[in-house]
Amino acid sequence: MVGVFRRSLSFPNKNPNRPSAKPHISHHIRSISLPCRSHPLISEIKEEINELSTWASKPSPETSASLSHALTLLKDTHETLQHILQLPQSLETLRAHPLWVEKLLEDFLRFVDAYGMFQTSIMALKEDHSSLQMAIRKRDESKVVAYAKGKKKTAREMEKLLSLLRCVGVAQHQQHCALHVPASVVDAELRHVIADVMSVTVSVSVALFNGIAASFASKRVSWTQMVKLSRNGGVKKEHEGVEELREKNGVEVTESLRNLKKKGEEEVRLVLNKMRDLEECINVIESVTEKVFRALINSRVALLNILTLTH
């Protein structure tokens, strides 16, 4: 027993300069637990957010191509977010903030509802548009008034969607990032990324809904409404409608729909060509917004799964 006791005393003195293995292992584990700062997904989503923020800040009128590009990028941003939410570090951070996750779920539900209602509204508009094209071929003016009413209804519905977006608490999410002291770099980066995703989602959605509203009605969102949106995370942007929709749906087209029975074949053909161009533009926007709609649903499901695991 004495020999063993002496060996236990003399053991650490054999190599007094050798570093302890335990601190080395501890340091190595800590370095693995904080990879998110340089994680490719974080860098990728920050680039997407910056591109969307730059797009939203430009005051120029929108074209269908520009709007489609922004919506596609928004879809990609949410798909990247979904991958980030599946990272172990992300799960740990979000489980530590269940109340914030619940608020995020509420706001994502507003996004999903807004884009779901948008799809329904555009589908109804397309049906009216198809009916009008058939009526033009038959020189039937009875559908012209119904189509005009349908466009005004679409514009009013877009304004309702803008009101729904004003309920999204972008400022609250940004405030959450400022008030809560982050436990790590991962914690801080993730919370700021999510808040920024919410902000650009509002900005692009405002441009979409207001662009459609302005294209089908003379009434635009008031300055007071735009101030409210900007305070809630939306970027102040000139909303003059979607260029192609505005051109194909302008006064000239409206006038050409009158007195169809008195118009010649060439005039009717030109009107139908413009109607087909308008329909194609609407189809493009509908297609890309449907992809955004599905991406928003998947983002909410990813958050819902985290909250479910937390409980």
UniProtKB/TrEMBL annotation:
What superkingdom heads the lineage? Answer: Eukaryota
Q: Which GO terms describe its biological process?
A: root development; shoot system development
- Mind telling me which InterPro entries this protein's record contains? BPS1_pln
Signal peptide location: none
Region feature Disordered, mapped onto this chain: 1-24
Q: What is this protein called?
A: DUF241 domain protein
